[in-house]
Design goal:
Chain B is mainly beta and about 150 residues long. Helices cover about 15% and strands about 45% of the residues of chain B. By secondary structure, chain C is an alpha+beta fold. Chain C is about 45% helix and about 20% strand. Classes of the chains: A alpha/beta (about 120), B mainly beta (about 150), C alpha+beta (about 700).
Chain lengths: ~120, ~150, ~700
């Protein structure tokens, strides 16, 4: 079974680009357009990896990570933050919230796939 | 069908009569043959353009083929039909006296139009095919239509 | 970073939506509604545009959005106070952002100097904030000077690479690595085995698990937390590359990396939270079910959003390829024609006594109209985004002329066909600029006239009996009719001494050649006059009118069909040919009395109506068709409004009724026919031509009219 990725981003453009990049790499990719929907989709789909944007309406990326991590059973799920932020404090904050790693925006398809492989061990 | 005909070096033609003479059109240009229907005249159109008619919701021009070849106007008659022809994406109607048959010829049997067919007549004829009772002129549809179309606005 | 065209289109589509949101939010802020959620929303829109724009290497856009976002971030985190001055900058920046998006979309060069000015304004806000002793802005960490568009390393992950220079100097090297994960490492979804596997990819890895801290009979989680590794890696890679592997777990473990032969560890222990604390945290009961937590977290922002934007709750939408809609559109057109053909056939067969049949025919008609309306609604869009763009135009034009102006929008929810909206953008822009430029007076003059120094332009849209009416009204000085007439006479548009009504003078400004470079400013001009506006509106099947009140202001009214696919027309016949005249052009039908039509010269006729003379045009002669009525039959004239010659009277044989028809192009199968804009299929299956009165009038030759003058 292929690895299922849940990508949460309020930008249609980014969602489409992530979807194409992941589908091309053989991942199955599900999408959500804000934090609240993202958490709901997470509960419903139980994906192997989550990629989330930070600045989103209704619930931001930190909220998403915290909501997912609240359940002990979800602790092992890698959650990647996709963001344009580069500040060290930001990384610390994401890590404190429970993020597994970061992907810079704009991303290129190859690094995106590599980061997912890195945190999932997928071949 | 068409591919098979091509492979055998055969071409199918629809043979019809217009202005008392025999004409033929490559069947690949022919979409259908309909009875004569109401035609709405177009202002400022050349005399061979009878007007426009309704083909299942599309507005298509109808040409009097006899007039295209300077054979006078086609006289109103029961047997008159409109040959619906396609030229690329363009659909047009050709009013003819009657359609007689569909004939298949080896490509080799199509002869070039001799030079003696001068003037406008020659410019829309791509060749000649022999029939039992004489011969038929093969219509060069793109050339026939192109000359009669107004410049797009 | 090659993003293909589909994504590019998607990006611009989305950017357009985001700019609309931005514009909406700014309007709400300017209306005095201050809510942090609005500021957040503005921030997110700009941030989102920046984030996606980066994927398309739109550097200027990204740079600008970044700086803009920094200011907005200051506002949303209360580091910057939203003073009127700052709000102005925020508003102008939104305008400029829209300009940059548009330039990127059309792949046009931007004026870099304008961007520099806009950036400087944003910087000034940031500097002002730090000067007043507010918290320093986090610009240093975000390095806006460098800008994200520049080749900064993709933090978080850089493909592991070898430094060839250092390789040449150092050769393979061994590293001793001590790695002791904190519980938080596991909690963040990390797996030590994956990290070790990545290390192993760099070279030869020897691992040794240190179980010394392992307590007896612990839970599996506790076992994991107690594990630590002693590793030895022989590799060509640099120490940086090794640290790269541990990038994500920085702070989530104790880590030392020591190159062989080095006494001092180069990377010192990074202490995270002590294990005890984390363990305690781990042991805390997760009493609340997750779902409840989510609700609790979302309740607050959701309700906040509701309170400010109850009306803006987005409805679920579906994006459909335009081609599919076109196909549906055409099919519905056929359906309508088919329906009227059947109705007419039933009529012809005199089946009225069959009550059932009558009921079915009527339901078919209603059903077909319902479908038609529903399909047309698919293409309908609110004029709001178009109107919003106009507030930017007003600000630009006001800035350019030193005037003060505000735009008030009314009825921006009014829906119009997508194509109509698209094709209305240029003429509307031009008219709005014109209103600021020529309509409104300068602030001093306004004050002197006892007006508010800030001029107002009202832009409104409304549906009125099957068409959409857009008005542009200003409270400026109105037209200077004397001057307008003077210009027209000077340019030879009207004869000197012509006696024109006020409305006729006002309408002179639409004449081609009225406006020249000297009559238009830099802004509205570019040498283009209102004649272009009128032509554009007419090509949409619409009409534009002007009403001016000296000292009070000017109002332009544009009436447009709701869609370009159907047309309301007056069915007439000339000879035995049926034709439609667009109702938008038709004024009235007249049966002139003897003496009301008179010959002027060899082939001109004039109709005298209410004290005015109107040229009469013989439609049959114009179209080259024989008339179907006796030469001495009473004349029937259709008065039409044209651009070229104002009011004209078309001589027709019969006027039937007014009806709505589906427009069919002639051009794809035939070509352009002079005087005819398109065709339609009538209920009996016959084709009727749709006349273009302007073209008819322009090509008029009035031969033979004398014979039909009633005597």
């Amino acid at each position: 079974m292929s690895i299922m990725v849940l990508a949460i981003d309020d930008s249609r453009t980014i969602r489409s680009m992530v979807h194409q990049a992941l589908a091309a790499a053989g991942f199955s990719c599900e999408l959500a357009e804000d934090g609240v929907e993202g958490v709901r989709r997470f509960e419903e789909l139980r994906p192997d990896v989550v990629i989330t944007d930070i600045n989103m309406p209704h619930m931001d990326g930190f909220g998403v990570i915290e909501a997912i991590r609240k359940d002990v059973a979800n602790r092992r799920v890698p959650i990647l933050v996709m963001t344009t932020e580069t500040a060290k404090e930001f990384k610390t904050r994401a890590r404190d919230a429970g993020a597994t790693g970061w992907i810079g925006k704009p991303f290129d398809d190859q690094s995106l796939v590599q980061v997912i492989r890195r945190v999932t061990g997928a071949a | 069908m068409q591919d098979a005909a091509d492979q055998n070096g055969e071409v199918e033609f629809v043979i019809f009569t217009s202005g008392g003479q025999s004409f033929s059109l490559d069947i690949r240009h022919v979409r259908e043959i309909r009875g004569q229907s109401a035609v709405t005249p177009l202002p400022h159109a050349p005399e061979e353009v009878l007007g426009v008619t309704n083909l299942r919701g599309a507005v298509i021009p109808v040409f009097d083929l006899a007039r295209c070849f300077a054979l006078g106007a086609t006289v109103d008659a029961e047997r008159n039909v409109i040959v619906i022809a396609m030229n690329g994406t363009q659909t047009i109607g050709l009013l003819v006296q009657s359609v007689s048959e569909i004939v298949s010829f080896p490509r080799a049997n199509i002869q070039d139009a001799p030079d003696m067919l001068g003037g406008s007549a020659q410019s829309h004829i791509s060749g000649l095919v022999p029939l039992q009772e004489g011969m038929s002129r093969v219509i060069d549809l793109p050339s026939l239509i192109q000359r009669r179309m107004p410049v797009p606005a | 970073m090659a993003a293909n065209d589909a994504f590019r289109d998607l990006f611009f589509e989305e950017a357009e939506d985001l700019l609309a949101t931005l514009s909406d939010d700014l309007v709400r802020l300017s209306a005095g509604e201050f809510d942090n959620e609005i500021v957040h929303s503005i921030f997110r829109a700009v941030h989102s545009i920046k984030g996606s724009a980066g994927a398309f290497s739109l550097e200027e856009l990204v740079d600008f959005a970044h700086r803009y976002e920094t200011v907005l971030d200051g506002v949303r985190s209360d580091r910057l106070e939203l003073t009127p001055d700052l709000f102005r900058v925020v508003q102008r920046s939104a305008d400029h952002l829209a300009v940059l998006v548009e330039a990127a979309r059309t792949e046009q060069e931007t004026d870099r100097a304008v961007t520099e000015t806009a950036l400087a304004a944003l910087d000034a806000c940031l500097c002002a904030a730090s000067a007043t002793g507010a918290d320093p802005m986090p610009t240093a960490s975000e390095t806006p000077e460098a800008g994200p568009a520049q080749e900064e390393p993709q933090f978080g992950f850089v493909p592991l690479s070898l430094d060839l220079d250092s390789l040449a100097q150092t050769g393979p090297q061994s590293f001793d690595i001590c790695f002791r994960p904190h519980p938080s490492l596991y909690e963040n979804g990390h797996e030590p085995a994956l990290l070790l596997a990545q290390l192993a990819e760099l070279g030869h890895l020897e691992t040794e698990i240190d179980l010394s801290a392992l307590p007896h009979w612990s839970a599996p989680e506790i076992v994991e937390q107690a594990l630590s590794w002693k590793l030895r890696l022989a590799t060509d890679a640099t120490q940086d590359a090794i640290e790269e592997v541990f990038d994500f777990v920085d702070g989530l473990c104790d880590l030392t990396i020591q190159a062989e032969g080095n006494d001092m560890p180069e990377t010192v222990v990074q202490n995270g939270a002590p294990i005890e604390t984390a363990t305690t945290k781990l042991a805390e009961p997760d009493a609340a079910p997750t779902a409840t937590c989510i609700e609790a977290e979302t309740a607050e922002p959701a309700s906040a959003a509701k309170s400010v934007a109850a009306a803006d709750t987005p409805r679920p939408t579906l994006r459909v390829d335009l081609d599919r809609i076109e196909r549906l559109f055409n099919a519905v057109g056929e359906l309508i024609i088919n329906q009227s053909m059947i109705a007419q056939r039933v009529d012809d067969l005199q089946l009225h006594h069959d009550a059932d049949m009558a009921v079915h025919v009527e339901s078919y008609r209603l059903l077909a109209r319902d479908i038609q309306e529903a399909v047309m609604a698919i293409r309908a869009q609110p004029v709001k985004p178009l109107f919003q763009r106009m507030s930017r135009i007003v600000r630009e034009a006001a800035d350019g002329t030193g005037k003060q102006a505000q735009l008030v929008m009314v009825g921006e929810g009014t829906e119009v066909d997508k194509t109509v909206i698209e094709r209305l953008a240029d003429p509307l822009t031009h008219m709005i600029r014109n209103s600021v430029d020529h309509g409104l007076e300068g602030p001093e003059q306004r004050c002197a006239n006892g007006k508010d120094p800030v001029g107002t332009i009202w832009l409104s849209a409304a549906h009125r009996s099957g068409s959409v009416v857009i008005t542009i009204r200003d409270d400026g000085g109105g037209l200077d009719r004397e001057k307008v007439l003077g210009v027209a006479v000077k340019k030879g548009l009207v004869p000197a001494g012509a006696d024109l009504s006020e409305s006729e003078i006002d309408n002179l400004i639409f004449l081609p050649g009225f406006s020249t470079a000297s009559a238009t400013s830099l802004l509205s001009g570019r040498g283009v006059g209102l004649d272009v506006v009128r032509t554009a509106v007419q090509s949409l099947g619409g009409r534009v009118n002007i009403v001016s009140r000296p000292g009070k202001g000017t109002e332009f009214t544009i009436a447009l069909p709701l869609t370009l696919a159907v047309l309301d027309g007056m069915l007439i016949s000339v000879g035995n040919i049926s034709m439609l005249v667009p109702i938008s052009a038709v004024l009235e039908t007249i049966r002139p009395l003897a003496g009301e039509v008179q010959a002027v010269g060899p082939d001109e006729c004039l109709l005298s109506i209410r004290g005015r003379f109107v040229p009469v045009i013989d439609l049959a002669a114009n179209l080259g068709v024989p008339r179907a009525v006796e030469a001495d039959a009473p004349m029937l004239l259709l008065l039409v409004e044209t651009e070229a010659r104002g009011t004209c009277a078309l001589l027709v044989d019969r006027v039937h009724d007014q009806r709505q028809v589906v427009i069919k192009g002639l051009e794809s199968n035939y070509g352009h026919v002079p005087g005819v804009s398109a065709a339609t299929v009538l209920g009996d299956g016959q084709i009727a031509l749709i006349l273009d009165p302007d073209a008819i009038v322009a090509q008029n030759h009035g031969a033979g009219l004398r014979a039909v003058i009633p005597s």
